[in-house]
Amino acid sequence: QVQLVESGGGLVQAGGSLRLSCAASGITFRFSAMYWYRQAPGGQRELVATIASGGTTKYSDFVKGRFTISRDNAKNTVFLQMSSLKPEDTASYYCKAKPWNSTIDYWGQGTQVTVSS
């Protein structure tokens, strides 16, 4: 059974930082591409950052220079370090796993990030 469990969300003031974690089980994590998405109330889910199995990272323009995605294959965990947070970063943040040998994408349940002005 595949499980992705996000944690680390919370309430933070603008300019502050948070570190999100997503612990994976039931997949061959080291061979999986991992993603962070977010969805604001009334909005569509949007891609935030990607990290390939080999460690290559990509970011959406709205987080470049502020967010960092990383992974620890020994702990089957992907992280999202968020700095210089803005009120518009307020959203539920979701991690997604795309195993190399599966056509199925797996999602976590999300963690809420609220940035106050």
Q: Key terms for this structure?
A:
seven-stranded mixed β-sheet, globular, 117 residues, mainly beta, four-stranded antiparallel β-sheet
Characterization of this structure:
This protein has 117 residues and is mostly beta strands. The chain is 0% helix and 54% strand. It has no helices and eleven strands. The chain has strands spanning 3-7, 10-13, 18-25, 32-39, 46-51, 57-59, 67-72, 77-82, 91-99, 106-107, 111-116. Strands 2, 4, 5, 6, 9, 10 and 11 form a seven-stranded mixed beta sheet that branches. The chain has a four-stranded antiparallel beta sheet with strand order 1-3-8-7, with no helix packed on it. The protein is globular. The model has no long low-confidence stretch (mean pLDDT 97).
Low-confidence stretches: none
> Gap between N and C termini, in Å?
40 Å
The helix/strand class is mainly beta
Question: What's the pLDDT, averaged over the residues?
Answer: 97
Shape: globular
Main β-sheet: number of strands, strand sense, barrel status? 7 strands, mixed
Strand content: over 45%
Query: What is the radius of gyration?
Result: 13 Å
What's the helix-strand series? EEEEEEEEEEE
| Assembly status | single chain
Structure summary, number of beta strands? 11
Percent helix, as a range, is under 10%
